[in-house]
Amino acid sequence: MYAFAYQRPNTLKEAEAAFNAGEDASYLAGGQTLIPTLKQRLRQPSVVVDLGAIAALKGIAATNGGISVGAAVCHADVAAAPEIRKLIPALARLASQIGDPQVRNRGTLGGSIANNDPASDYPAALVGLGATVHTSARDLAADEFFTGMFETALASGELVVKVSFPAPRRAAYVKFRNPASRYAIVGVMVAETAQGVRVAVTGAGPCVFRIPEMEAALAKTFSIGAIQNIPIASGELNADIHATAEYRAHLVGVMAERAVAMIA
Q1: Is the same domain home to 84 and 182?
Q2: Which of 108, 122, 138, 260 has the fewest CB atoms found within 10 Å of its own CB?
Q3: Rounded to whole angstroms, how far apart are CA atoms 130 and 109?
Q4: Alpha carbon distance 47, 2 (integer Å)
Q5: For the whole prediction, is pTM greater than 0.85?
Q6: Whole-number Å distance between alpha carbons of 213 and 256
Q7: Domain extent for 31
Q8: Residues 154 and 85 in one domain
Q9: How many domains does the chain fold into?
């Protein structure tokens, strides 16, 4: 690693001040991405601002028919929380499938979505459930938060504080995972919400995306048959050593059908 200063503030204001005071500062949440990049010397921050002591970033609460999850809550706690398992079991199941026990007990919701890895699971949950991201400066709908590969609407120094998930009428998340990393080669969240049916896909493209054709079909008839013949274009999907774009396009349909089958 390169040398850097380390700070562990106790409040959001202190964290933002420490970040803004550095020439090239980085926030540290669970460290599942930052620590490896530091070890590989792919990042050279002047200061690392550890968010682990900030109470405002922690906690899970049931609020107004939904769930509020602090940005510093780890995946294992999302998976185990009684409130989430009761109101949004699909979110708890999604969190239980992230990585391995070590990753689930260190990685955080806020760190994951701020990083916006194209193969991460949470973007599908946020977009599929119509969540709201509350930052240190504003509130953002999930549809507006994720903007591209490893890119979000967060401004420099802006922090994710918590995420509000409205409870759906029914929802399911299914993914085809990489057997080594457990990252989603393709993951699909299907949810029937108060605003209608939402189908969100992660892993397949550079950024999470919705499938309006499937949403419209499921709004009319919530069944596997309603979406079986909807084609998925492969032109803008990811292609790598794990799967071709064409295979990912095929998996989108298969994972969506399996999600519908779980809750139809």
Answers
A1: yes
A2: 138
A3: 16
A4: 11
A5: yes
A6: 12
A7: 5-50
A8: yes
A9: 2
